[in-house]
Amino acid sequence: MKRFITKCAIFILILSVLFLPLGVGLDPYNIFHWNHIRNNGVEPNKSYVKMMNILNNKDKFDSFLFGSSRAGFFDVSKMNDGRYYDMAYSEGLPGEHLQNIKDMLDRGVKIKNITMAVDDISYFVDPDFHSDQLYRKAFPWDGTLSDKAGFYLSYLDLITLSQSIEVIMKHKNTDPGYGARLLATGTENLSIEPDFHYDKLDPTWSDYYYPREESLDEIGEVVDICRENGIKLRIFTNPVNGYTYEKDIANGYIPFLKKLAKVTPYWNFSGFNNVTLDMSNYYETSHFSPEVADQIIDRIYNDKGDPELLKQGYGMYVTEENVDELTDILYGQAVNFDLPVDTYPDTLNKEPEP
After folding, report:
1. Is the four-CA dihedral 323, 291, 68, 184 of positive or negative sign?
2. With contact defined as beta carbons under 8 Å apart, do 314 and 275 qualify?
3. DSSP state, 186?
């Protein structure tokens, strides 16, 4: 028995010596090379990369834009009251942002401003689903040594590496500035023009999207932490693409917006409006263009807004006192929101009501 155990131990040791350098060297998710990011075709774990960047450069930024990947197309240099970094990452959620903020403060990052984008993803996605998704997996900053070891080891299994090699071999790097930009500003490539394809009209929606009331509590905690630490907080709703928004409101998104106003004031950009129904503003049914992001910055930071869009609720500053005015506008626009979801592509041909 001892001989068998010894042989197993030797085998594991040999395997580790041969296998670990390969996994660390290949590093498809840029976990082990977060400060030398390679554009290899595999989406990096941006939450981890960006947090490592901040915690290793504590004095470089004092303001942060949080959100899902939809918030990745903001030119943060236009946010004019701080040194902003774009902390957006795939399906970024309020609970995850809350933990990021706590970890930053606990590790001595001085925060002046936080701007946070929320939308259907914020309400419909449970953070627990990300625990098995390597490009969304949260790092256990305050976890035990075994928790942290488990995080790193999850990126070194043979299946992950073999699948990644196939992706990496097929990938052509058309964005050589990707890594440097991710560390300098955190944004996506703002020079890429939207190219919406009308043959791909399915809403951005996953089978694990269900209303999650805890998200409102997590947003409330962000509000409290910012108040306690003298941080200026701004919250806004993303202008969700019309095709996706149709399904959102069929699943309770407008009630979420009403409840949100009881937690915090916010700027609303949701609805059927001249922006969300114009597909030239979108890359697909999820991500909006830098031009739309500029509109949002202008409204929030410079108090500028198009009167026609404001009538449609786009850019409206929402409080607990006037939220019924917003929901009246949104329900008025969504005259067909009770239709079966399989008919959603036809409903967007209707003009939104003012």
Report:
1. negative
2. yes
3. -
H/E stretch holding 86:
strand 84-86
181 domain-assigned: yes
Domain holding 194, by residue range, is 2-347
pLDDT tens sequence for the chain (354 residues): 556 455 455 545 544 555 577 778 889 999 999 999 999 999 999 999 999 999 999 999 999 999 999 999 999 999 999 999 999 999 999 999 999 999 999 999 999 999 999 999 999 999 999 999 999 999 999 999 999 999 998 998 878 888 888 898 999 998 999 999 999 999 999 999 999 998 888 999 998 999 999 999 999 999 999 999 999 999 999 999 999 999 999 999 999 999 999 999 999 999 999 999 999 999 999 999 999 999 999 999 999 999 999 999 999 999 999 999 999 999 999 875 443 334 334 444 444 444
Task: Provide CB contacts within 8 A for 249, sequence distance 6+.
Answer: 330, 334, 337
130/118 Cα distance (integer angstroms): 17
* Strand pairing class (232-237; 113-118): parallel
- Confirm whether 352 is domain-assigned: no
Q: Are 88 and 67 in contact (CB under 8 A)?
A: yes
What is the torsion angle, in degrees rounded to the nearest 10, for the CA atoms of residue 345, residue 351, residue 352 and residue 353?
-140
Q: Give the chain's count of helices (H) and strands (E).
A: 14, 6
Which helix (H) or strand (E) segment is 317 a member of?
strand 316-318
Q: What is the spatial distance between Cα 147 and Cα 152, in angstroms, rounded to a whole number?
A: 9
Number of domains in the chain: 1
Residue carrying the six token digits 């090699």: 165
pTM, rounded to two decimals: 0.89
